[in-house]
Amino acid sequence: MSVEVKSLNEECGLFGLWGHPEASQVTYFGLHSLQHRGQEGAGIVAADNGVLRSYRGVGLLSEVFREDKNLTRLTGETAIGHVRYATAGGDGVNNVQPFLFRFYNGSLGMAHNGNLTNAASQRLELEENGAVFQSNSDTEVLMHLIRQSKKEIFLEKLKDSLRQIKGGFAYLLLNETQMIAALDPNGFRPLAMGQMKNGAYAVASETCALDAVGANFIRDIQPGEMIIINGDGFRIEKYTDETNLAICSMEYIYFARPDSNIAGVNVHTARKNMGRFLAKESPVEADIVVGVPNSSLSAASGYAEESGFPYELGLVKNQYIQRTFIQPTQKLREQGVQMKLSAVRGVVEGKRVVMVDDSIVRGTTSRRIVSLLKEAGAKKVHVAIASPPLRFPCFYGIDIQERRELIAANHSVEEIQEIIGADSLHFLSEEGLIEAIGLPKKDGKTGLCLAYFNGDYPTPLYDYEEEYQKSLQEKYSFFRN
C-alpha cells in the first residue's frame, strides 16, 4: 500500500478453505497475502468433524498467531479467516472477526468485508424484537436476521436475510456442514474462488491469495450470488436478480495487490494504464519520474513509458515502519511519514521530478513528500495523481465517510497545488480511469463505482443519507504552508 497517511483503509480481507487436512494453516498463508487489506485484527474459525473453534486477536496476523498453539489447536479440514481495519464497529477484540456464534441447534462462523448502509436501522429493529448484540460491528446484523427469519431451511433464511441488508458486502459463512460465500448485488468488493491440487476449494478477497496457496482460479463470485461448498463439491445459487455491477474503482487504484486480477483485469496492468493516460492528458517538462511506494509504482512506470522520461528510484520506503496513519496527532503522523520515506538525493538533486501517486485524500502526506524531494535538491516537483480528485465519501467499505476528510471536496486543483507546495498538480480524468481499467461496458454502464469522484452512488445511502446531504452544505478548511 502507498505511504499516504490518509485514513484510507479497506475494511478487511477474507479467506476460506474447504477440504484440506491443514485448513487453518493454509488459511493463515492465504490471509498473509491479504494483510495489506487489514492490519488491526485477525482471526480464524475452523471446523473439525462438526465442531467449530476460533481464535482471534488485535494486531497483525503474525502477532495474533505468534504462538503456534493458537493455530495448531484449530484442527479440521475447513476454515475461514479474516484480517481487518476498523471501518465499522471500532477497535477491540469483540469486533475482530470471524465471529463464532453458538446456538442450541448449531454453530455459525461469519466473516464480512464491506459496510452495510442500513445497519443502524436494522439493528434497532432487531433489538426491539429481542436480539442481543455482542459487538458494535455491522457484520453481526446478518446473523440476527438469519435467526429471526421465518423461513425453515438455513439457506432460505440466509437468502431472506441477504435481501434485507444494503450496501457493500462480501461474506464467508461456516457451519457444521458447509461453507458459503455471498456477494452484494453490486459486487463492490472482490471475491474469487479457486481449487487446490488436492481438490480443496478456496475463496479469497483477491486472487493473489489463491496463488499463494497454489489454488487455480475457477471464477469470481458474481453480484447477488451465493457459492455453497460442501462434501459434494460446490454449487451456485442466486439470492436476488436485481443486480448492477459496480466494482469499487479504488480496488484497482489503491487497495488490491498488483498481482491480483479483479473481474478479469490485472491490477498492475490497470495501474500502468492509469499512468500512461495521465501522461497523455497532462504532459509536463521534466527529467525523471518517481513513484511513491508501493501502490503507485505501477502507475509511475506507465507514466515513464508514455512520457519518455526515465523512471528512477527517487523515494525509498522503510519496510519496517508500520501503521503511521493511526498516530494521534498531525505532528506525529508527519514524523511517521519522514521515518517511512526517504528521498534519494543522488537521484533527484538538480532534477525536475514528476512525483506519481495513486490519490490525495487530506494532502498532508503529499505536502510532506514534496517537501522531502525539494529538501533533497529537486529543482521542481510536478505531482501527478493516477486517479481523479476524491471529493465524496465512501459508504461501502472504505473508512472515509465524511467530506471533511477530503481536501478536494472544498479546494480547487490550483488551491491543492499551493497547499502541498507542488510546482504543478495533475489528476487523471474519470474517462481516463475508466479506459485504463478497461472493464467491458454493459448497457452504457462502466461496471465501476466512481462515486468517490462524482457523487453518483449506485445505491440509496439509507442510514447515511441525511448526514451526507448535510455535509454537502458544509465547508471545511485545510492547512497551508
Number of folding domains? Answer: 2
Give the distance, in angstroms, between the N- and C-terminal Cα atoms. Answer: 27 Å
In CATH, what is the class of the largest domain?
Answer: Alpha Beta
CATH fold label of the largest domain: Glutamine Phosphoribosylpyrophosphate, subunit 1, domain 1
Tell me the number of helical segments per DSSP (H or I, 4 or more residues long): 17
Count the E strands: 23
What does the largest sheet look like? 7 strands, antiparallel
- CATH homologous superfamily identity of the largest domain: Aminohydrolase, N-terminal nucleophile (Ntn) domain
* Strand portion: 15-25%
Mean pLDDT: 91
* General form: globular
Strand order of the largest sheet: 3-2-4-1-10-9-11
SS class: alpha+beta
Whole-angstrom Rg = 22 Å
Short recap of the structure:
The protein has 17 helices and 23 strands. It has helices at residues 23-32, 61-64, 68-72, 119-128, 140-148, 154-162, 207-212, 249-255, 267-281, 297-307, 330-340, 345-348, 364-375, 413-420, 430-437, 451-454, 465-471; strands spanning 12-18, 41-48, 51-58, 78-84, 99-103, 106-116, 167-174, 179-183, 192-195, 201-204, 216-220, 225-230, 233-238, 247-248, 261-262, 265-266, 288-291, 315-317, 341-343, 352-357, 380-385, 424-427, 448-449.
